[in-house]
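Lab meeting minutes (informal)
Scribe: AK
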Amino acid sequence: MTKDEMKEYFNVGISTSMVIFAFDGERLRILIQKRDQEPFKGAWQLPTRYVLPSESVELNAKKLLEETIPMTNTIDSYSEQLNAFTKVYRNPIGRVINIGFYCIVKLTEEERRMAEEKGMRWATYSDVPDLAFDHNEIIDYAKERLKRRFKRRPVGFSLLPKEFTLTQLQILYENALNKKFDKRNFRKKVFNSALLVDLGKTIETSYGKVSKLYCFDEDKYEKMSLKGYDFLF
C-alpha cells in the first residue's frame, strides 16, 4: 500500500451523537441544539462531538453527555450505544462516520434552564423538526431501541421522578411504545410486576384529582434490569 493510499484510508472523521430522552410528566422529550456554524448553520441537530485521535468512542460519548447536561443528572442515567451511521455523503464537508448513542435521564427544572441557556430545547417525542445531517434517522433508530428496552427491561423508571403516579407511568409507556393502553389492564400488569411500592401519600393533579404516589422497589428493579423481563401489553 502506497503512502497516498494510506492517507486516503485515514482521511475519515468520526463523531458521536447522543439522543437524550427525558419525561416531563406528560410527554417524552428529546434534547436538540441549534448549530452555530456551517454546514447547516442555524439548523437543529442532536448533541454531537468529534472524536479526537487520542479518544475512544466511549470516552468521547461520556464527555459529550457531561458537556450537554448537568453532571448530577448523568449519575443515574442509562445510556447505550446504538449503531454506526456511515452514509458516504452524510456530511457535505467530508467523510464522517457517526456513532450514535442514546441516554435516558430525569428531567429537572435545572435541566430545562441549562438547555435554554445553551440554545437547546426539549422537542416533544412525536414532533421532532427536520434536523441537520442524518440525525432524524438516528432518532428513529433510538426510538426503536427504546421501545424494545421498555418491553424487556424496567428502564422506564429511570425517566420518572422518585415519586410518581400511575397515570404518569401509563403516559410514559404510551409515549415510548406509541400505543394506548386500557387503564385497568395496564395497572394490573404493573402491579403483577411487583416493582411498585405504595408510599401511602397522595398528590393533587393539575386536573384537581387526588392520586396515589408510588416509587419503585430498588432491589427488584436492579435484578430485573440485569435479567430482563417480558412487559408486554
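Next up, CB showed the second protein from the same session:
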Amino acid sequence: MKSSLYKNQMIMFVVMVIVGMLFNPMNILAYRLSDLYMSQTLFYGGLLMASNMMWAHEIVHYLSMGHFNMLIFSIGTMLSICISILLRQQLLVDDKQWLRRMIPHHSTALTTSHKIYNKTTNPEIKRLAKEIIDTQEKEIKLMKSML
C-alpha cells in the first residue's frame, strides 16, 4: 500500500516538473505567431523553472509532511545553479540561437507598445510607443532575414 502511494506521488512529481518545463510563458506576449521561435535560451528558461520547482517542492514537502528527498533537492539545486550560469553567460548560444530568442523578445515589445499606444492619452508616451513599434518592426525584419 505504502509502496503504491509513493509510486503515485513520484509520478505526480515527475508530471509536475515536466509541465513546469513545457509551460514556459516567456513568449506568451508575442505580437504575431510568426515571431515565435524555439531557442536554447527559451529551453533553459523552462528547465530553470522545472529545477526550481524540484527543490522548492522538497522544502514544502518537508515542512508540511516531514519527508525530505535529498537526491531530488540536490539535483534541483545543482540544475538551478548550472542553468542560471548558462543563461547569464550564454555559453552555448550561437548567432542563430541568439536571433531566435531576440525575435520573440522584440515581438513582446510590439505587443505591449501597441496596447499602450491605443490606451494612453499622454502624448509623450504615445510618441515613445510609436517609436518603439517602428524600431522593433525594423529590427524583427532584419533579424528574420539573418536567419
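CB comment: The chain has one domain: 2-146.
No objections, moving on.
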